[in-house]
Amino acid sequence: MKYMNFFFSSLKVSLSQQMVYKANYFIRTLTLMGFDMVLPFVTILIYLNTKGFNGWSFDEIILFQGIFILVNALDRFFFRRANWFLSNDIRNGNFDRYLLYPVNVLAYVSFTHLAPEQAAQVVVGIAVIIYSLVKLSVSLTVMKVIGFFLFLALAMVLLLSLQIFQYAVILRAVMMGRMGEFIMTLKRYGEYPVEIYGGALSSVLRYVLPLSVLAYVPSNVLLSKASENYFFIGIIIVAIFFLSYSFWLNSLRNYTSAGG
Description:
The protein has one domain (2-253). It has 13 helices and no strands. The protein has helices spanning 2-18, 22-36, 38-49, 58-79, 82-91, 95-98, 105-111, 119-136, 142-173, 179-187, 199-207, 216-223, 230-253. α4 (58-79) packs across α9 (142-173) and α4 (58-79) crosses α12.
């Protein structure tokens, strides 16, 4: 309950900060919505000029990308700003205060600087998913819905794990250079079905760094496509989370104030 109150208080503060400049907030929101619609637009061009992605109809791939838009928007809503603020607070010495607050340091870092303008992108993702499900006449069973939300949660755990890894690196190095951009580029491998990447890379995206969980696996669950080894994927994601969390704890123990 304490952390729920903390989250909603952080959201209220973040929204209040954004609404100081209302015009900027709404322009930024509309711009981000436009960027998110680029992915389906590119897919339309692909299917108009080629045979598309093998094994995926046009409406199926739009569902796939609606799920990716949703997951990516949730990632940006929770985590996108945290790296910059963490690095800045370490440089100016404010991070030392985090250690005195009556809340878990990782929770404070992760959920203090939210991006409420991303809520519109969440709505876009949900709208695209609903449109595609209706167009495909997908019959939603209880197991499908449970499976979808389970893998949506696992996708967020994987993204949180990548974020925690970045936090740990920042604690050690203060400035992490292009690592944030590298992680963002890495996540883009989840934009399309893993089959297009070939045998070896496809296996990596399934069972080593399972970015397939960002959209590919949830889509397969809803569409009842050929099953993956879902249990193994879940185990790998949980293992990645604990490895990242252990690295964070080790970095926190070795923190020497202001990056020293």
